[in-house]
Amino acid sequence: MTVSTEPGDGKRTITFTEIGPAGRGTRSDEVVIAISPTFAALFSQTIVGLPHAEVMRQILAGIEEQEISARIIRLQHSADLALMAHTAAKLSGSGIGIGILARGTSMIHQRDLPRLSSLELFPQSPLLTLETYRNIGSNAAQYAKGESPEPVPTLNDQMARPRWQAKAALLHLKETEMIRKGAPTVEVKPEFSTAAV
Asked: How far apart are CA 72 and CA 115, in angstroms?
């Protein structure tokens, strides 16, 4: 499936409204997505310029295509991807969660796995496309249904790390500066809007 990177006639944006403290889900047909402190807050796009609104739209679409529901939480006390994804999995009724950092690095996790293990890890954020994010959502939803999908195919470029290392370090620094020690994990609701360009 080819996913267009064009948001249409206007530029799609996303904002998150805090609903309240994030609780453990009771639905077995849900995937919880954990976003970092700066996702669609301080930053609005990934390290390679993919709009956070489009990234989230594709993850949600991948989940919905599998007829699974999604909830979104924001971790405010950490920008550790493994902790984010594992927290999402522990709060998910199905035991499956996705973590995503502002720069785009992502992970699919399962509640019963050790924190530093995961079902799928996507560490090379410069190589992730909107199609990849849609497939991440789809695979997470399939895991939630008890299926064993093929891992999401990703590109591999040995030069990606040295090429993007400085920018990744700067984004990580900004991400960690936004951490609020002791702040609760909150459930958030996405609101998409499109502005004319």
From this structure: 19
Token pair for residue 76? Answer: 């405010």
| The two structure tokens encoding residue 56 | 């989230």
Contacts (Cβ under 8 Å, ≥6 apart) of 62: 133, 134, 135, 136, 137, 138, 139, 140, 141
pLDDT digits over 23-53, tens only? 999 999 999 999 999 999 989 999 999 999 9
Q: Dump pLDDT digits (tens) for 42-101.
A: 899 999 999 999 999 999 999 999 999 999 999 999 999 999 999 999 999 999 999 999
CA 85 to chain CA centroid, Å, is: 9
- pTM, entire model: 0.89
Q: Are strands 120-122 and 106-110 parallel, antiparallel or unpaired?
A: antiparallel
